[in-house]
Design brief:
Order of helices and strands: HHHHEEEEEEEEEEHHE
Largest sheet: 5 strands, mixed
Radius of gyration: 33 Å
Strand content: 15-25%
Helix content: 25-40%
Shape: globular
Length: 260
């Protein structure tokens, strides 16, 4: 008779344990993760989010992916300015030059085709048959120049050349204005006279100009749009014009073409 109460207590404990186990199972069954359509019930393919260097970028964007873009452009001899993770004007002009060399449509928004090209970039095509190891090639059709050093691109930059518009202006020392079209002539030239800082010309201000064809020069400008806009000179971004004279000596060949 003494053993019977012990058996009852054991039965009660076993009954309570069974209720608790059943309760946990009911909770799990009711949880969203175990219901119909959950990952455990059906297999679904999640929508991949863009990787940091492959999301769409627009001017004004900031972040580590912009910094990665800037570093990559520098590796390829384009100059986006300071590597600061900000998609500003300097980076935009480097992007234009890259798109021109790679025969891409020059768009501000960078999408899939741009990232593919950045992963497998093309080399700039020489514009002339003469291919001196140290030279400058200017592509007027696509608005970029390449400075070669020892046969390899040292710098690739966006430029803005002659607009083709008709204008009249007085040349240095002239008393009568001369009218002409704003063109950058094609041909083979060599670098000559240069000036440091801002130089005033009859047609405006030139920063660190390096002349290569009469009054036609490479020079820095505050406005270097995507299209030809100068009176004939080859405008370049100011941050590049700061050091361009250090890279380009005197009597260096310059080939200017409008290739197909």
């Amino acid at each position: 008779m003494r053993g019977r109460p012990i058996d009852v207590r054991k039965s009660a404990v076993l009954l309570m344990a069974a209720v608790l186990v059943t309760g946990c199972n009911d909770t799990e069954a009711a949880a969203p993760g175990a219901g119909k359509g959950s990952p455990s019930a059906t297999k679904t393919t999640p929508t991949p989010s863009p990787t940091p260097t492959h999301r769409k970028l627009k001017p004004g964007a900031k972040g580590a992916d912009v910094k990665a873009l800037q570093r990559r452009l520098k590796e390829l001899h384009y100059d986006p300015g300071k590597v600061d993770g900000k998609y500003g004007t300097s980076t935009q002009m480097a992007v234009w030059a890259f798109q021109a060399v790679n025969r891409l449509k020059q768009k501000s928004t960078l999408g899939a085709s741009f990232w593919r090209a950045l992963d497998a970039p093309k080399e700039p095509r020489p514009v002339a048959k003469k291919r001196e190891k140290d030279r400058v090639d200017v592509d007027l059709k696509r608005q970029y120049l390449v400075l070669y050093e020892n046969g390899e691109p040292r710098l690739i930059s966006h430029v803005s050349s002659g607009s083709g518009e008709y204008y009249c202006a007085k040349d240095r020392g002239a008393t009568v204005a001369r009218c002409r079209y704003a063109t950058t002539g094609t041909g083979d030239f060599r670098t000559g006279r240069r000036a440091s800082g801002w130089e005033t010309s009859p047609l405006g201000q030139l920063y660190n100009p390096i002349y290569f064809n009469g009054g036609i020069a490479f020079h820095g400008a505050l406005d270097v749009p995507k299209y030809p806009a100068s009176h004939g000179c080859v405008r370049m971004p100011m941050h590049i014009a700061e050091y361009f004279p250090d890279l380009l000596g005197t009597n260096v060949p310059v080939h200017v073409r409008r290739p197909h």
